[in-house]
């Protein structure tokens, strides 16, 4: 039995007072790759934000990487996020520093102090995403696909148990989307769990995995052919 890494029971997702999604019951096992699909405004991002405690879990019960989302004190949110790798649609790289220093900033912010260990870790994650030679480039010197690879490398820095990728190919052309997707596939094949929200159905058909759909205020699993 592979262990459960995410469990939600009768969860409702709210944005402030507005109910976005209701009656979510879901199990994700370690090592799974799960898509979350749905139209713009269907609640995909709100669902993802609930998983990394950007939106509080007010109704139902939920745990992710052994953190209870319902009773999570605010002071523990940074500890939860160290066990999660979060990849955003718009990269969120710091424009005023090069790639190496973007990654070093995250390591320092999460408690790393040994310079040689930091350098080694940075080299390791850049190698994983095929960007080993780009450490001295600034974000504006990179293409969109390269910036997203760096964002994935950044998500890997603290060896997260699960990667939450919120529309990671949303700003990329189809060819670059496939390249970024291949990186995520490789990471998943090393045993890491990935939950990825997307509206790119071509990618889902090319790389089929378990698929959850947000529609009409619900989330339900869809069989691939019915997407």
Question: Which keywords apply here?
Answer:
six-stranded mixed sheet, ABC_transpr_LolD-like, alpha/beta, ATP binding, 7 helices, single chain, globular, ATP-binding cassette domain-containing protein, 227 residues, four-stranded antiparallel sheet, 10 strands
How is this structure best described in words?
By secondary structure, this protein is of the alpha/beta class. The protein is built from 7 helices and 10 strands. The protein has helices at 44-51, 77-82, 99-109, 115-128, 144-156, 174-189, 201-206, and strands at residues 4-15, 18-29, 33-37, 59-64, 67-68, 84-87, 162-166, 193-197, 210-215, 218-222. The strands form 2 sheets. A 6-stranded mixed β-sheet has the order 6-7-8-3-9-10, with helices on both faces. The protein has a 4-stranded antiparallel β-sheet with strand order 2-1-4-5, covered by helices on one side. Helix 6 (174-189) links the parallel strand 7 and strand 8 (193-197). Helix 4 (115-128) crosses helix 5 (144-156) and helix 5 (144-156) runs parallel beside helix 6 (174-189). It is globular. The two termini are 28 Å apart. It comes from Flagellimonas spongiicola. Pfam families: ABC_tran. Keywords: ATP-binding, Nucleotide-binding.
């Amino acid at each position: 039995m592979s262990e459960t890494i995410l469990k939600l029971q009768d969860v409702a997702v709210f944005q402030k007072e507005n109910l976005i999604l209701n009656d979510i019951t879901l199990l994700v096992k370690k090592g799974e790759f799960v898509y979350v699909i749905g139209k713009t405004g269907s609640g995909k991002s709100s669902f993802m934000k609930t998983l990394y405690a950007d939106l509080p879990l007010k109704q139902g019960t939920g745990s992710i990487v052994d953190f209870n989302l319902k009773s999570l004190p605010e002071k523990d949110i940074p500890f939860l996020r160290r066990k999660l790798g979060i990849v955003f649609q718009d990269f969120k790289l710091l424009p005023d520093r090069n790639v190496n220093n973007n990654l070093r900033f995250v390591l320092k912010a999460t408690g790393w102090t040994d310079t040689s260990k930091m350098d080694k870790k940075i080299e390791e994650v850049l190698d994983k995403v095929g960007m080993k030679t780009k450490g001295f480039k600034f974000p504006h010197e990179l293409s969109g696909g390269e910036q997203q690879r760096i964002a994935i490398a950044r998500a890997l820095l603290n060896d997260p148990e699960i990667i939450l990728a919120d529309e990671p190919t949303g700003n990329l052309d189809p060819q670059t989307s496939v390249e970024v997707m291949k990186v995520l596939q490789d990471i998943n094949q090393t045993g890491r769990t990935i939950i990825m929200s997307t509206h790119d159905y071509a990618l889902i058909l090319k790389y089929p995995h378990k698929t959850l759909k947000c529609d009409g205020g619900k989330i339900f699993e869809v069989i691939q052919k019915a997407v």
